[in-house]
Design brief:
With about 210 residues, the chain is an alpha/beta fold. It has 2 domains: about 140 residues, Rossmann fold; about 55 residues, Winged helix-like DNA-binding domain superfamily/Winged helix DNA-binding domain (Arc Repressor Mutant, subunit A, Orthogonal Bundle). Helix content is about 50%, strand content about 15%. The protein contains 10 helices and 6 strands; from the N terminus they run E-H-E-H-E-H-E-H-E-H-E-H-H-H-H-H. Helix 4 links the parallel strand 4 and strand 5. Helix 7 packs across helix 10 and helix 8 packs across helix 9. The longest helix is centred in the C-terminal third of the chain and has 15 residues.
């Protein structure tokens, strides 16, 4: 049976390339395409697929959050991240339920192999990503990043690093939007940053996930 695949990426040229690559494989078919997280979730509600190829930088909902929601919607769904990002985002993706992570610069052969592996139940990573994971687990235990933050503030900062809005964070941690807004301001003050972008950079550099 063919592997039914949903492509989620907001770049038409990249989707075209994946269509061409997948279309040349006799055991794969394109079940659908989505240019946003909202479209991906709508498609998944109406039609199950064997594998979702997920970008992270989507125009509406962060791909990691889409992965989390999609897995809650269809626990059997397998999500393979295909992204330009080579950073601690990989750990956030795995926590969200992704079964693999490959880079957009991967060769066609590597991409096809990753699709088959992910659809077959394996965890699959680009060599560079696998090396990052190995290095992460090879590190000796260290003190928690940002000891000046409370545990709740660290939790909110980690969600900020995923690109989530205050309203989504409020739902996730069961706080009011006003409370989250105040906590975010406290985080900015303690980290000595002026905006979300600077806070996210600091969080990712520290490997907060």
């Amino acid at each position: 049976m063919s592997i039914a695949i949903l492509i989620v990426d907001d770049h038409p040229v990249f989707r075209f390339g994946l269509r061409a690559l997948i279309g040349a494989e006799p055991d794969m078919l394109i079940a659908g395409e989505a240019a946003s997280g909202t479209e991906a979730l709508a498609f998944s509600r109406s039609q199950p697929t064997d594998l979702v190829l997920m970008d992270i930088n989507l125009p509406d909902i962060n791909g990691i959050e889409v992965t989390r929601r999609l897995r809650a919607l269809r626990p059997e769904a397998r999500v393979l991240i295909i992204s330009m990002l080579d950073d601690a985002t990989v750990f956030q993706a795995l926590k969200a339920g992704a079964c693999g992570y490959i880079l957009k610069g991967a060769s066609g052969e590597e991409t096809v192999r990753a699709i088959r592996a992910a659809a077959g139940g394996e965890a699959i990573f680009s060599p560079k990503i696998a090396q990052r994971i190995m290095q992460h687990f090879a590190k000796p235990p260290t003190a928690s990043a940002f000891p000046e933050l409370t545990e709740r503030e660290r939790e909110i900062l980690a969600l900020l690093a995923q690109g989530l809005t205050n309203s989504v964070i409020a739902d996730r941690v069961s706080l009011s939007i006003k409370t989250v807004r105040n906590r975010v301001s406290d985080i900015f003050s303690k980290l000595q940053v002026s905006d979300r972008a600077e806070a996210i950079i600091k969080a990712r550099d520290a490997g907060l996930k």
